[in-house]
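From: lab user (bench 3)
To: helpdesk
Subject: output format question, protein + adenosine monophosphate

Hello, I'm new to running complex predictions and I'm not sure whether the block I got back is the full result or only part of it. Here's what I submitted:
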Amino acid sequence: MKDGTITLCVFCGSRHGELPAYAEAAQAIGAGLAGRGWQLVYGGGRVGLMGVLADAARAGGARVTGVIPQSLMAREVGHRGLDELLVVPNMHVRKRRMAERADAFLALPGGLGTFEELFEIWTWRQLGYHQRPIALLNSAGYYDPLLRFLQDTVTQGFVSGEQADMLLVDADPQRLLARVADALRNGKPAPDLSLT
Ligand code: AMP
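Helpdesk reply: Thanks, we reran it on our side. This is the complete output you should expect:
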């Protein structure tokens, strides 16, 4: 939170998905974070929801940083219209750079890469490596089956209720951003990620 400016790290799909609701959600989160005066750090691509998110955030006046591995510059089409595009040697450095800059994390609909990023940052919090808010936007019920399964992981005794409750879940983009803002106001000061 340099100079008091909040940076939100967003994980999201490199595809658009089937429903227009997903791109609308990416647009709303980009515009919404900009409206709050926040900055965005994300995976740096121009494809899929990543591009929609970054363009909306920039259009709203947010500073946008992308972090992309050299090997994915072609596949995810590194976004040249950002305030900053960090081209890094590999995926591990990408995730480290994104996490280092983030005050909070938010996942939009996405695929395997999005799941991996969300679950990694969630496990880091479970282990106490950071205390930052983690949010999931459940647009058009996309994550309903996952959320049901996560409930089962608690019922079946593999995840504690406290661990499950760390994830802020909402279907409404503005309400979710407001809950992230509340969590940032009420949360403990974030220590550096020592895992990375
Ligand atoms: P996807 O959700 O699969 O469309 O991917 C969304 C983003 O996650 C893309 O920028 C991918 O490069 C990224 N990604 C894919 N695999 C991983 C991984 N193992 N760790 C971190 N990010 C990944």
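A quick orientation on your result: Residues 132 and 172 are 20 Å apart (CA to CA). Let us know if anything else is unclear.
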